[in-house]
Amino acid sequence: MTLGLINANPVVHAKKERVVRNEDPHGDDAVDPLEIYDILLLLANFVRDIRDPEHPYSLEQLSVLSEESITVDEKLGRILITFTPTIQHCSMATVIGLCLRVKLKECFPPHFKVDIKVAPGSHADEESGDVRKTNAFNKLLNDKERVAAALENPNLRQLVDECLYSNEL
Amino acid sequence: MAEPSQLSQYIESFVDSSRSPTQQAASLEAIASLLKNNQLTIETLVREMEGYLTTVDNIIRARGILLLGEVLVCLASKPLDDATIHSLIGFFTDRLADWRALRGALVGCLALMRRKSSGGMVCGSDAKAVAESYLQNLQVQSLGQYERKLSFELMECVLERYPNAVASLGDTLIYGICESVDGEKDPHCLMLTFHIIEVLSRLFPDPSDALAGFAHELFEILGCYFPIHFTHQKDEDMTIKRDDLARALMLAFSSTPLFEPYAIPLLLEKLSSSLPSAKLDSLRYLTDCTMKYGADRMAKHIEAIWSSLKEAIFTSLDSVLLFTPESLEGPDLPKNEIAAEALSLLEKLIVQNTKLFLDLIVGDEDISMIFNTLSDYKNYHEIPLERKQRLNAVGRILFTTAKASQVSCNRVFECFFSRLMDILGLSARNSSGQPFFEESILISKRCNHGALYLSIEILSACRDMIASSETILAATSHTEETWKYLLQSFSSALTMGFCSAFICSSEGTHDAATYIGVKGLLILATFPGGYSLISKTVFEKILVTFVSIINEEYSKRLPWKLALKALVEIGSFIERYHESEKEPSYMDIVVEKILSLAFVGDFGIPFPLRLEALSDIGTSGRSYMLKVVQGLEEAIYANLYEVYVCMANKLLLILKDNYHVHGSTNSAEIVTHLLKCYSDKVIPWIRCEKGFEEVLLQFAINIWNQFENSTHFNASQTNKKGVLDVMMKAMRLAVANCSEEKQNIIVQKSYNILSSSISFPLEEMLLQEGFQIAQEVDNISSRDEWVLSLFAAVTIAVHPQTHIPNTRSIVSLFMTTLLKGNVVAAQALGSMVNKLDLKSMRGQTSSDCTLEEAMDIILNLSLWIFDKNSSSSIQSKMISVHDTGLNDLSNGVGSCTSLQIHAILGLAWIGKGLLMRGHEKVNDITMIFLRCLQSSGRAGISHQETSISENNYKLDLHNSVMKTAADAFQILIGDCEQCLNREFHAIIRPLYKQRFFSAVMPVLQSLVMKLEPLSRSFLFRASAHVIIDTPLIVVLSDTKKIIPMLLDGLSALSNDVVDKDVLYGLLLVLSGILMDKNGQEAVSDSAHTVVNCLVDLTRYPHMMLVRETAMQCLIAISGLSHARIYPMRTQVLQAVIKALDDPKRAVRREAVRCRQAWSVFSECWHQLHQEASISNSFHSFSQVQ
């Protein structure tokens, strides 16, 4: 079920220096963007896993995600993630979005509300001048029922599962 | 003589190719042994085999000849007469033409050619005949791998052993060899061919020889192998590695100068390749060839080599210099292998062709460009990265050049050093070093870090050159050298320069500047040859600069560290090169100043830093250490005196004036630091050096002397504990590092003081009225307590052979003291028990005792304490003693319990001593503990018919006794730093932990079965200690039996916060089991219980590490057989969901991983059910199903 490369030559960005956190032995650790980022990076190499053994890059190197693009409000229990697809086509962006959502649903307690958005200007539809489509896309990603429906679809479900789990096998 | 029929049977069975290889080998062996024992002659054998050797059947003939060859291999050391050898070699030489039966012929030839002269050798003419037949008949490259290998071995053998015989073959030989080696690919054969070419070139050393005509051809064959590209799998051919091949080829390359016109261009071409291994190989080959080809031949290529070499150095060196104290005087080799090889080649080339090469370097444009742009940047950190790399490269090149020889050093100083001085604005003058007035104006100019860096490189090269050339003594012979003149005239100016780099930096604080300044000064100070090169004033100025940094700049970490390190380096340099002229200055300026730091009052440098400086300076040389140790000890005694004696006076003063409170605690604090420094820094150093035992002996004796003299001992309660602890530590270490005779002196001394201050209890009295003694011990003065503790420290550290006087009384004394709760006494008793003689030896006095006797004393006393009947009687006595007026019941019971606790602790240490030496009495002690654990509080209650509330109180107390008994197992089996280890000369039986584990675990397990659930918890605690401290590998071998106990222990311990550390230790053992392959198999059956237990622990509220580890264990479990763990999936995932909300981040992270691990597995399971097409990754599942 290998498709052709959707993005044959991705732009690779240098890895950033990680901020070293001062661990506090006592007291509770709040959820912060770095933690979410770490969890999402467990999705590392998933671009490779889906499509292409030639791109051994992580989401970070492809700068799909960065620490700054994640915001957390611990009190209200809200997580907002803005990602930038490297690929200017609908299909991969949806899959990435879906993967992020499923991953976060699994990795955070249910009282967190997760919002996932595409960075403005990064999506092909928006370039064509149609801002409404980006909004539609964001709506799609954040619509509980449509996400659930997408995951009902066996093919889509399999794709997402492969993204999330195949690097472990 | 062997029977012909038997012989022919043997032959038949070897030749018959349908027989198994073992049969063939057996018959070969049989024939060989017949020959060896002279039961058979070679003639008979050959005659018997005639049919096989000459038959027209190719297979049988081949086997026959092979048999003869193999027999000869077996007879390598048996003497044979010349005629036999001659006829045999003649036969095999002929047979080389028979390609169908070649292997036997090759084996036979090789066996004969390899014979040693003692047993008869092949003569020269025969060897030549072999070579001729070889060259004429063998088409080596058309043979199989094994035959090729044999034939190469044969050729190698001929060339090595009969060079003169075959040399006359000339062209034919070389041509034949060219032909046979061309196109070889097998690594084993290649090793041989490379060696053949190497030997061949040695055969024709003269350039006018036959080889000259073939040099090009031969090199073409060789050249295509370079650089070696070796892609063999790891499993096969483990014997040959890429490096072996590369080395063999290198030797072949450099074997004759005739290869020079072809080899050097090839190597230079590959040097510019982008493959690092090719670069490295080229450099190594070039180095080797340079040495072998000679100066004249290399001169032709020198320009080409220089330019490629320069390129290699420029691109391969790191651009970042390290500015850490460690790199100050470390090995100067660059980390990059290519750069290191390139520089070593450069050095060889300079040595070989000094004049030519120096011209090249001096005239090089890249280098002079760097010099021209030096003044563009002042500070090192301003220089762009690329420029830094080049600067570094030039520095290394100049270093290597200057270091190569006197001549090159002169040249470098002439051309580069003076230019640097100009750039820095330093002026030459005589070494008197009077500062000029324009100094301050020029300061900014002198702060050119690039130039300073280059001067450092040149100076250090010059220093290394002198140090290595062994001509230090004849320093005067350098007079005419340019470098000497320049160095002398600039040395004081340079010192100023480096100092100013330092001064500039103290404002801007940049590591580079400080580093450069310190390093420059250090190099100037460590020029060998007394004061002939660097004048005394300069040297002392440098020392004063460093010392002042130590004294003043303590707030800045890096400069301080660097200066200290530099001083240490200078000290060890003086020691190493026996610079007797410089030693007094160093002693006066450095050692004395630093020593005074230990005394000077409480302003300025923090005390730990002073001690660091002190001990570091000490490590630079023996004489300094002696001085430092003296100073340190004086400081210790002085401060101890304060602690002992002046305390009383101080107390009065304190009452008057609050200010002094600070002062009095200070001396205790200082002495703590001093003693810590003594035991952490000085004693380990002394242990490595020989001949300092006397110092330790003196230290110990002096401490005791001081004690003896201080009769007005009055240490205040607040700070004495800390001082006593460090004193005991220092005493232990000092004694432990002495020899037996010195230990005897110390023990005797301490015993005298002990016996003069404490009256020994009598043994009988001890038995009868132990509790009263325990009361009496309460009343000993604090001085006696110190004496006793120090004596215990001595006892802990002695050798087993060291004699301890009056053992019997001392055992009793320690026994009573430990009942008071003195742990050190218990440890000392444990050590004594560990080291006492088993049998009484020589004429011992009645006061000494053997281990048996000592144990009797100990056990009698302790049994009596724990005996149910007597315990009630003690208690009543105790109570009566205590309650004489107050009628305070609970107090009496309390002191009885604490007596029991102390007794258990003491017994634990004693038991540890016994356990380590493997003495069976340890069982008695273990039994006491087990009895305590079983008693479930009944013993304590039964005889007291008091109210319920008091009963409860007592049950609690009794629990604490049981807890101590459980913890005693930790003391028994755990490692201890303070005593009973290798350092303190304990007798340790191998595998004692394993023995104890396998002895005590079954008992504990059966006890758990017997008791009712409520009273089990202490048993679990005890077994947890045993499991934790046993080596994991032992636990792993017994996993199946241990697991139920371990799991019960985990759930029992998780009820109480107090047990969290034990719980964590136990959990770590479980995770160790789960990580191990065999452990996983053993756990697999009880997976369900393990998971239940772990799921509970993921909610353990008291310790984050426990939750995290439990999570990790769950991840490990997901690796078990899927059929086994699938039922637990929902349970685990629910637990994980809860853990995702854990307050601690680490736990959440593990939870995410755990969820991932377990969901993968469930997803797979889903898909297995859902889809018909399953990807390969799920293969293992289908098997499970």
Automatic annotation (TrEMBL), chain A:
SUPFAM superfamilies linked: Fe-S cluster assembly (FSCA) domain-like (SSF117916)
One Gene Ontology term from the biological process aspect of the record: protein maturation
Coiled-coil region: none
Family of this protein: Belongs to the MIP18 family.
Name of protein: MIP18 family-like domain-containing protein
TrEMBL record, chain B:
Family annotation (InterPro entries): ARM-like (IPR011989), ARM-type_fold (IPR016024), MMS19 (IPR039920), MMS19_C (IPR024687), MMS19_N (IPR029240)
Domain MMS19 C-terminal: 701-1117
Compartments in which it is found: Nucleus
UniProt domain MMS19 N-terminal: residue ranges: 46-314
Gene Ontology cellular-component annotations: cytosolic [4Fe-4S] assembly targeting complex; nucleus
Keywords attached to this entry: DNA damage, DNA repair, Nucleus, Repeat
BP GO terms, sorted: DNA repair; iron-sulfur cluster assembly; protein maturation
Keyword Nucleus tagged: yes
Listed Pfam families: MMS19_C (PF12460), MMS19_N (PF14500)
Matching PANTHER family: DNA REPAIR/TRANSCRIPTION PROTEIN MET18/MMS19, MMS19 NUCLEOTIDE EXCISION REPAIR PROTEIN HOMOLOG
Homology family: Belongs to the MET18/MMS19 family.
Function as written in the Swiss-Prot or TrEMBL entry: Key component of the cytosolic iron-sulfur protein assembly (CIA) complex, a multiprotein complex that mediates the incorporation of iron-sulfur cluster into apoproteins specifically involved in DNA metabolism and genomic integrity. In the CIA complex, MMS19 acts as an adapter between early-acting CIA components and a subset of cellular target iron-sulfur proteins.
Protein name: MMS19 nucleotide excision repair protein
Organism: Gossypium anomalum
Taxon lineage: Eukaryota, Viridiplantae, Streptophyta, Embryophyta, Tracheophyta
